[in-house]
Amino acid sequence: MNLRFVLAMALLAAAALPAAAQGLRATPQLNFRAPDNSPRMADYIVAVVNSEPITNNEVRTRLLRFEQQLQQQGTPLPSRSELARQVLERLINEKAQLQVAKEAGIKIDEALVDQAEQNFARQNQVEVAELRRRLRAEGVDPAQFREEMRSQLQLQRLRDRELEARVRVTELDIDQFLREQQGNPDPNLMELNLAHLLVAVPENATEAQLAPLRAKAQRALERARAGEDFARLVAEVSDAPDKSQGGQLGLRTADRLPQLFVDAVRPLPVGGVSEIVRSPAGFHVIKVLEKRHAGMPGATVTQSRARHILLRPSAQMTETQARQRLAEFKQRLQANRADFAQLAAEHSQDASARNGGDLGWASPGMFVPEFEEVLNTLAPGQVADPVITRFGVHLIQLVERRQATLTAREQRELVRNIVREKKLDEAYAVWAQEVRGRAFVEYREPPQ
Fold this sequence. Notes:
Structural class: alpha+beta
Order of helices and strands: HHEEHHHHHHEHHEHEEEHHEHEEHE
CATH superfamily of the largest domain: Porin chaperone SurA, peptide-binding domain
CATH topology of the largest domain: Triger factor/SurA peptide-binding fold
Shape: globular
């Protein structure tokens, strides 16, 4: 789990704990709850945090969003009263932390809110204007939506500042993590990427109908074990709806796969093909594409080589001004009136400037989430719009990508990131309790 909020999910869930905001890196969809046409009750104060009130309508609005998020995830809903209590506690924690952020002088430039709004729209595959239109159609004020984004960004910056210094990962921590993962016998911690081929069997099929279908599956099995391209075989033979994706199920833990699939491939190595597996849908032939312990980095990853120009906001240059300047650089690059490496050498405010902004080859997780999210959308040679992170404002260009087998040292660095994120979550839990404990909270009427 990663401490940093996926902003769009934070807005839907109003989650004040990283555990509630994590595992939610999947693209959020614009599928807001239909407007509630029931008569609104008179608003009232349900709690006071220091001197700031929380109203029933605030709880009610967040509750509707939280319910929708849980439904989208397929999570069973607790009782309405219990859910309202959880939402109220999260609002209390959020209010207390926002007060700390304001006291610390943490402010969010309009440019960063613009970027967050653009990212949210892009993730939902719409333009910003269309996003705002849909918000209004669902009774959500776009200006209020932006203010919620601003609040979440304030909280993110506060948490980054407060928690970074609390976390240190030692070589002993990495060794212990590796021992725990390698020695854990729980099969549900195994991650599998499987591809399957289905020969469909009609319901209540007779033995006479089954025989040719079983023979068809057997011929497919023999061809797969003879080394024939499995994706091509799937496209030719399979009756499954995922045949256009080569029958791939995607990397997932064993407990999220059909048990009969897991049992069939348990003894197989990567590249192995199972015996024919019979399910109510028909006959399956399964190939193991990837197999590893959950939480452990794979031996092969997609690496990116990028370069960037970094401008750090200061008293002489705001985030907005830095963003505008980098946008001008991008226009010059697109018009072939400038060279990226030369611009980086002349203007970038970090150590990569001497190398023309070149950041070298990087594995997943090596950059901060905001940077990596944008980098992953680029094609080689493409330059992104300016991106704001806690380090400043970046102009990013993807140079190239490659599949790389990691050295032992590189794998340890990936494990370091995993352990660090785990420690950040633990540190957050302690810090959040400290902030909550210092706040004066007065409960009034229960939310409805």
